[in-house]
Design a protein that fits this description.
Structural class: alpha+beta
Distance between the termini: 17 Å
Number of helices: 5
Number of strands: 10
Radius of gyration: 17 Å
Shape: globular
Order of helices and strands: EHEEEEHEEEHHHEE
């Protein structure tokens, strides 16, 4: 995937030509609805005034508290906390979250996160709402609907969200997605950024040029 060098910098993902920074631990929730009848996911719009990923539509999430206990528990706790704070979705049991993926920000980017993404069905009767500070909108999308809205310029998506939506779109229902994810080994993914002039290419493991 190619992006403009200026677009990379404006998103808060400034190119880092020097030594790699240490990624901060983070967690995110892919909230699902549809059960066995379909699949929709919740995206929230980040505040356009934010320094990092301003105006982008993302899965609710945030950094893990530095003083939290070790292991998987702090990521689950952070995921549930951020879901409540950014989207007003409460009542999710952290122990019921289903691990789905783990993405590490490329070493060529200055602000880095090591993010674990979890799946969970939306609690019955939930009505997500933005907090008005970190997030300014919240909507349900089908994965393909979100990708089409991005392609048409209606919403802004960043690379990890796009790649997740492409994968999620291969499942017809929320139940099918959860069945697939339960018990599956999560392998960390760390893209690379290759800059040439004013163009930056984002490469995934296994793509030509990744190991160069």
């Amino acid at each position: 995937m190619e992006v403009g060098r200026d677009d990379l910098d404006r998103s808060g993902e400034e190119y880092n030509p020097g030594p790699a920074t240490t990624p901060r631990q983070a967690a995110s929730v892919i909230l699902l609805r549809g059960g066995g009848d379909g699949l929709e996911i919740l995206l929230v719009k980040r505040n356009p005034a934010a320094r990092f990923m301003a105006g982008a539509w993302v899965f609710p999430g945030g950094a893990v508290d530095a003083d939290d206990e070790a292991g998987d528990a702090p990521h689950r706790a952070a995921a549930v906390r951020e879901l409540a704070e950014e989207a007003a979705v409460a009542g999710v049991d952290p122990d019921e979250l289903v691990p789905f993926s783990r993405w590490i920000t490329p070493r060529e980017v200055r602000i880095r996160f090591d993010t674990r993404f979890f799946l969970t069905p939306a609690p019955d009767g939930v009505e997500p709402a933005p907090d008005g500070a970190e997030t300014v909108d919240a909507r349900w999308f089908t994965p393909q609907g979100a990708l089409e809205a991005h392609a048409e310029g209606e919403i802004l998506l960043v690379f990890p969200t796009i790649k997740h939506l492409e994968q999620l779109g291969s499942f017809a229902t929320a139940d099918a997605l959860l069945d697939y994810a339960r018990g599956r080994e999560v392998v960390p993914v760390q893209p690379r950024v290759v800059v040439s002039g004013e163009t930056a290419r984002i490469l995934l493991p296994g793509e030509p040029g990744y190991d160069a």
